[in-house]
Amino acid sequence: MTEVASTQAVSATPARSGEFTLGWKVLLAGFLGTMCGASPLPFNVLGFLFKPLEAEFGWNVQQVSIGITIFGITASLLAPVFGWLADRHGVRRVAIWSLVGFVITFSSLYFTPPTLAGFYFLWLLVGMIGIGSTPVTWSRGLSLWFVKQRGLALGIMLVGTSAAAFIVPQLAVWSSDNFGWRAIFPIVALLPLLIALPATLAFFREPLAEERPATLSTATGELAGMTFKQAVRTRQFWILWFSIFLIASAYGGAHIHMPAIVGDHGIDRSAAAGIMGIVGIGLLCGRIGVGFLLDRMWGPAVAFPVLCLPAIACYFLLGTSSEMMMISFAAFFLGFAAGAESDLIAFLAARYFGMAHFGRIYGMLYMPFGLMSAISPVIYGTVRVKTGSYDGMLMAAAAMFVIGGALLLLLGRYPDQQKAE
Description:
The chain has helices spanning 3-12, 15-35, 41-45, 50-57, 61-89, 91-107, 116-130, 135-145, 150-179, 184-188, 190-203, 228-232, 235-256, 258-263, 269-294, 299-316, 324-353, 358-387, 391-408.
């Protein structure tokens, strides 16, 4: 699009529809990249590896689960590095090479050796390469195209993880049934190779200066925003960081252990699967609904009541009552809040710190999310083993949800304009 054409497109379209008119292709690529990237795919195949790996190698559930924990921790620690690379070299380049690397490393799990060390090393490689194919990258690209409807755009992008939850398990089961468990990895890796990578090559890019929303630029045409050093010196950064840490600590294990938690309430496996479907519906509603509200209200005012919902859910899940209505509400509340959290990290990072160094700043804020999402399931499991119940952890999680949400109320008003250094 030429400068004249893009200017006419902006002026001829109302502000709210104009962003989607200009940025819908980038949003599509971000949606497909999120759906087929390293954020949802590994977690959606894990449950189908426990039995075959135990049968072939004698590894128990805990030993297999450590692989995904290594992946999550490695990816989280490297998120600021990939964010910095996106700031320096552009999101398109990082997204393309990370997708290629993710396809190769994830497929390499086909060659899992009969040693846990080898299995863990392969997951380490996936974490080292794949983080660039997660929202750390896609969120920066979208936030450069969308301002007035950024919350909704980010919500739509993150629906990709929900879409993966419907597609990947079916593909994993089909692969395992027809070709054995090893085939799960290269076959599922066809999703980033044949869907996300072509869409990224065709559509995903940063806007030209004349396409960029005016509020993102300084008077000299540079991207507005704090430097990384400026951001980490603000109280807003550390309030956000600690809030994300608490909420991820509370939610990560609750999601993974949800079938076992409802099992303690006397719910059978088939009904537990239905409960997980309700969690998925909550995720979808949270991402779209909260994204819509973020564009119209002060973010922390949206976040606090939403993050109180999972605290109520934890209360509903205490004890062993088999009241399905109460358990269903708990599942929906947990999913709704989890969908909201993913939106909030990117949205609030852009609003409080600007876009000039968004990648690295967002990467640092993604770190506690990824770390505790990987570690929290171990904590939940440990509490269950030590006490014979999830109740102690659920009570602690309820407190963490409320405190994490309340902390966001201390962020203060959005800055009117960030200045690039």
